[in-house]
Amino acid sequence: MIDKMCEKYKLPIHRNSVGFKYITQYMLKENVLIGGEESGGIGIPSIHIPERDGLFNGLLLAEILRLL
Length: 68
Known about the structure:
Blueprint: H1 2-9, H2 20-29, E1 35-36, E2 42-43, H3 54-67
Antiparallel strand pairs: 1-2
C-alpha cells in the first residue's frame, strides 16, 4: 500500500534496517514526512518526537478525519 501511495504522489521511499531506532536516526538527518515499520508503528518527526506514539497518532488521525 505504501509503495502504491508513494508512486501515485511521486514520493520517494527509503528502506533501512529493521527497528524503529534506525528509522528515528534517519528521521533526525533527513526531511521525512512519516516513518513506519512492519509492525504498524509510525512516527511523525515534523510534528512530534521522532518516535512511535500511538496516542498522538490516534489523535492526529481523528483531526485529519474531522477535516474531511
